[in-house]
Design a protein that fits this description.
By secondary structure, this protein is an alpha+beta fold. The protein is built from twelve helices and six strands. The protein is elongated, with a radius of gyration of 22 Å. The relative contact order is 0.16.
Length: 346
Amino acid sequence: MLTRKTRYVFILFVVSSIASLIYIDWSYHGSKNNADASSSILSTHPQGGTAPRNIKGFEQIVDEEIGSHWEDQKSTVVEIGGRRIVVKFSVLIPKVLSDEIPSIPAEQLYDELSTSAKNGNREAALELAHELNRCRKGYSDKLSLRSAIEKLQDHGLYDSPDGLTKDFPIPQSERGFYVSHISREFKFCEGFSQLQLLESNEWAERSAAQGNISAMDFLVRIAIDSGDVAMEYKWHKAQWDRFGFIESADSITAMLMSGATPNGKPDYKKAYAYFLVYSKLKLASLGDKNEHYYNSLSAQFADTNTALSSKLSANEHLESEQLAADLIESNPNCCTSDNRYLTNIY
């Protein structure tokens, strides 16, 4: 489809204004390597193999099969809960899932990807989930497709199958492209059976279980679309537990603050702990080469800190700080981020 359903996230505090500075994509792959950059010429890939270090002091690990790579910074000390914790940040450079209509029939695509996925290819499993989900949300029949085409041709209005309508007319010169795309997509999607379309989450979960952070993010968005807060929380938590993914701590904070959790109640003590995790690690990942951004974030975090702290007693405040320190210190995969603006890299 030409448009995707807008991701409705729980943006409950002012740090959301930095979202435009962060590149977020469907596909993320992270790693953790505790060796210092100067310790060896070759480093071990977290999933096996080795990769040469470059002269800037961080790793560049390229995985040809899944088309992604990690860039590892030097270690940084984070002070939290009276502890000094050494962390190392890895930047996740994502592989983008294509919105192009596949060049082969859906039947062939399903056979090839499902076979590869069953043989352990986690990227094939995610790609199949992506294509099935695209078609599951597509036009349900030729009548709805024809109606959409007529609106495009006559008025330049695009009604996407997921219920979103462009709020401005599409220029006459571009309408042919839209008509061609949705027509070709509908024809492609007809090749999947209705039962196959229902398998989207199953393939994504298979990929996530094999450690694909992109699949976890895919499942988060599916949960948001369906309003399943338990599912959304589960996969944000999986991203933190499996990868020490900083941005997932931000999302967990928002959910805990709002009560958008499996038990339906706000948990300010735990929310404050995850907020400390996110804010401390985010600032630690920047440094003086990003002084303006750092100062802007610091001011925003200070406001959020005040708002959250006001909901806690002195003892709860201290308990939250200790929990935050535990969350970082006990996570062997901490920390990864989708932030490209890290001091030691640029």
